[in-house]
Amino acid sequence: MLARWISDFDCELATQFWYIIRTGSYEIEQLSKSTRKHIRQAFKKCYVRKIEDNEIEKMYSCYQAAYKRYEKADNFRSFESIKDEFLNRKNKNMFYYGAFELETNSLIVFFICTCYQEYFEINMSKFNPEYMALRPSDALYDFVLNLWMNKPEIKYISSDSRSLNHETNVQEYKINTFGFHKAYCKMHIQYRPCIYPIVKILYRFRHLLKRLDGNKLIHAINTVLQMEEIARM
Length: 233
Prior knowledge:
Elements lengths: L1 E10 L5 E7 L9 H13 E5 L5 H12 L11 H9 L6 E8 L5 E9 L3 E9 L8 H13 L7 E6 L8 H9 L2 E11 L4 H8 L2 H5 L5 H17 L1
Parallel strand pairs: 6-7
Antiparallel strand pairs: 1-8, 2-7, 2-8, 3-4, 4-5, 5-6
Helix pairs in contact: 1-4
């Protein structure tokens, strides 16, 4: 339906679209005293490692639990989609890391990541909200940052872009806790010839459509219109 790309990555101008990235080396001593304390406490209650082939169902259970928090999300993936990508991870240079509760060995947080030539990307992060009090995300971010940020070939770690599909405060958490920052950039969109006239018409009614955002179809349309609005800026 459309192609989306960016330019002017990590520019000085505060644009309406960004990625969350971390540059430089990583050591736990760089973090605040309270964050270091939380990480130590987290590792007393959970452990972190790569996710194994026989743990796909555990991972998907965590994925389902995470999505219960998102009232308007329309990008939920099937078990087969997650499974196929996981089983082909080595061909795509992908890495799966999870935090497991010590007492039950339950998978309570996981990252889906991809390693590129000069940077490492956390493509997906999902957290089971029932276990957030254990702060497993602190342990998982510390593990991944320590493992990848200090490799000489890795210039930065990217951890998602501005969320257009559902509200989240995860980006502020990464910025305030682990030293990520917003890498502002310019968004570009190119539609199929048959699609763009429809977008132009719907764009005129975008404020009205926002009032009907509870409908899943309209929410999906609103996401496209929001991208169009950002691209026009």
